[in-house]
Specification:
The protein has 335 residues and is α+β, with helices and mostly antiparallel strands. Helix content is 27%, strand content 19%. The protein has three domains: 124 residues, TIM Barrel, CATH 3.20.20.80; 92 residues, Oligo-1,6-glucosidase, Domain 2 (Oligo-1,6-glucosidase, domain 2); 84 residues, Sandwich (Immunoglobulin-like), CATH 2.60.40.1180. The chain is built from ten helices and 14 strands. Helix 4 links the parallel strand 2 and strand 3. The chain is globular and about 70 Å long.
Length: 335
């Protein structure tokens, strides 16, 4: 099996909004299929479809009620099969989102788990008794508040790192692992080329459910991100307004050329990767072969930094002079 994904450029598609084929105001699989030639002309290697499975929609489809079907608002399994076939005919790979950390609270497994504490499906989830009149521990939900919801009939809490409508699966349970092996095989057998695994970092929880030593960590991270975005909400818009159409900055119109340049640069296609020393407030890495080394420099500071020496190949800003502007990146071929 070729590891095509290691150097691939993949175009993410939010199914609900990308293309509506029937005029009902909701994007769908036939709409995506009709626009595959456009995506091919962007010179991408493949597409990544966000969840299109049956879902109540508590979290934009990331609360899955059935992992092996298509939500009727997006089409049918036959529509998915046709999309995959057309994509392959155009030389495009198809990857799909899989959401293994949690299901929807409307999934039959969870409904069985709530209806009968003795049902085998309950072991697929993380149910625990409370402690000291409260939840089992102090874990936060990414969406705010405790990561536990009380199931009054059983007197236990269930874990959800996201919304209460997204109960977490217990990946220490071999049955859950077997379930998802079957789910992945179902889609591979239909021709899907790969998967983007949602919340891959969070599948296996601490068996002992030990408390988070930094209570409120998730809430503070959310506030930090919100405050950072609110600090100067007009920066992105202003940057786009001042970027000239003919400049060297990478805007949407330059994307096909940038991708073609990437494919034509051997160091980026198959070169080795290495981090390089860089001044504070910057990230610099290199990819290179015996004949060529290309460096990417990213400035995350609020002030301009010196550009790396070498031939400037590509920049996210229209004007760089000899400096790397704040919140920008460049590619440079080393002398």
């Amino acid at each position: 099996m070729t590891e095509w994904y290691r150097s691939a450029v993949v175009y993410e598609i939010y199914v609900r909004s990308f293309a509506d084929s029937n005029g009902d105001g909701v994007g769908d699989l036939p709409g995506i299929r009709a626009r595959l030639p456009y995506l091919r002309d962007l010179d991408v290697d493949g597409i990544w479809l966000t969840p299109f499975f049956p879902s109540p929609g508590a979290d934009h489809g990331y609360d899955v009620a059935d992992y092996v079907d298509v939500d009727p608002q997006f089409g049918t399994l036959a529509d998915l099969d046709a999309l995959v076939a057309d994509a392959h005919a155009l030389g495009l790979r198809v990857t799909i989102d899989v959401v293994p950390n949690h299901t929807s609270s409307e999934h039959p497994w969870f409904r069985n788990a709530l209806a009968d504490p003795a049902h085998p499906d309950r072991a697929r989830y993380v149910f625990r008794p409370g402690r000291n009149g409260g939840p089992p521990n102090n874990w936060d939900s990414v969406f705010g508040g405790p990561a536990w919801t009380f199931d009054e009939p059983s007197g236990e809490y269930y874990l959800h790192l996201f919304a209460p409508e997204q109960p977490d699966l217990d990946w220490h349970n071999p049955q859950v692992q077997a379930d998802f092996e079957d789910i992945l095989r179902f889609w591979l057998d239909r021709g899907v080329d790969g998967f983007r695994i949602d919340v891959a970092h969070g599948l296996f929880k601490d068996r002992l459910l030990r408390p988070d030593p930094v209570a409120g960590r998730a809430a503070r991270l959310r506030l930090h991100r919100r405050d950072a975005l609110a600090a100067d909400p007009g920066v992105l818009g202003e940057r786009e307004r001042r970027r000239p159409a003919g400049g060297r900055g990478l805007d949407a119109r330059a994307l096909p050329a940038a991708l073609a340049w990437r494919r034509g640069t051997e160091a980026l296609r198959c070169g080795g990767f290495a981090w390089r020393e860089s001044p504070p407030g910057s990230l610099v890495f290199a990819r290179g072969t015996a004949d060529e080394t290309v460096v990417c420099a990213v400035n995350v500071e609020a002030v301009a930094l010196d550009l790396p020496e070498g031939e400037l190949l590509l920049t996210s800003e229209a004007e760089t002079a000899d400096l790397l502007p704040p919140n920008s990146a460049v590619w440079v071929r080393l002398p």
